[in-house]
Request: fold
Amino acid sequence: MSLDHALLVSLLEKPSSGYELARRFDRSIGYFWHATHQQIYKVLARMEEAGWISGEVQAGEAAPDRKLYSVSRTGRSEVSRWLAEPTEPEGIRDSLMVKLRGAAFGDAGALIPELEHHRALHANRLTAYRVIEARDFAGVRSTSPGVQSTGTLDYQRALQYQVLKSGIRYEQGWLEWCEETLGLLHGLKQVKPRRPSK
Amino acid sequence: MSLDHALLVSLLEKPSSGYELARRFDRSIGYFWHATHQQIYKVLARMEEAGWISGEVQAGEAAPDRKLYSVSRTGRSEVSRWLAEPTEPEGIRDSLMVKLRGAAFGDAGALIPELEHHRALHANRLTAYRVIEARDFAGVRSTSPGVQSTGTLDYQRALQYQVLKSGIRYEQGWLEWCEETLGLLHGLKQVKPRRPSK
DNA sequence: CCCAGCATGTAAGAGGTTACATGATTGC
DNA sequence: GCAATCATGTAACCTCTTACATGCTGGG
Reply:
């Protein structure tokens, strides 16, 4: 597992307080690794004790104090170590799939609102990603190796864009599947109607 | 959460022992909801106590005894209740994405073997799914509502096929993304080589 | 005055992983 | 004899979620 590493990478991108990180995990990195603030504070404390990060308290006038964390040299080398270490792909855990298989023994029609809900959510996320794409990555060419050196900023951006593109692909796949499945369920409702009355 | 429900659905499809379920969770349902045997035994015990399932010990001659579980009436109604209850889509947790973003602060080249590994795994799974598709769902037409009634078996099969198709879509998406990302990383290695010596 | 937002935590419990434990049979 | 497969579990540990707790500020 590695909320630890998700936080380290986040802190490398920008030193932050726990609160800021928690908000960042509702967007951005959080699209690919979710965490609550309680968890974040605990892991930050553990990592500070381990010496991977160091927190500096900033007294706020007219605002609460905040602990600004940044990654130490040890933390950086931990990230490098982790990058080189192989990781297995996470298994899928999708209750919708289980429900679909369960629908054969219950009311498949009951899944229609559920699927519509999922379709809407995935459509929303896709739109959000598209907005980010247009805003932040308008000028990044896809995969072409690039003839002249494009600098270190474009390097980081290219990687971030690639992450975003996985999100886009993912949401689009879901969206198409939801459409298809809704079509199927509407068809099945005709074919095998549930007993109409009690 | 719902390993409970995944097990119930599995048992509805076929009454089984814990051991059998554990093996089934390495294929089939397990592609969409993973679980170890330890966990399965614990949940089965809990569900039996709750009265959702009942286990019947079968004495084996020349084989160990096994407890064959089947879903009770209460269990069935629990499934129906759960089917109608809305569920949020599970959040993604993908360390590869975090790693890609982290690669901007480390050695992006170190991710190449990792990505090749992922590509191979997703390619394997995709092939496995395609085999199942060809074997079990050769004659199922995609989404067309079907003019004449096709019976209750085709009903269940259509749902199972739809689940499989989500798996196919998922693996294919990953595969394409891995290819694309490998192309990008090979390009970047040229553009921004890491310091060659210590 | 109350609610929303900023900011940081503690505590209990459910869910999940890893390691350990046992005992029988079949095939090499 | 030894490894693999069948078959069922216990125990320790870690992660993650949910609920609770505190205190300050600015706007309606």
Observations:
- The mean pLDDT of chain A is 89.
- The first helix of chain A runs from residue 3 to 13.
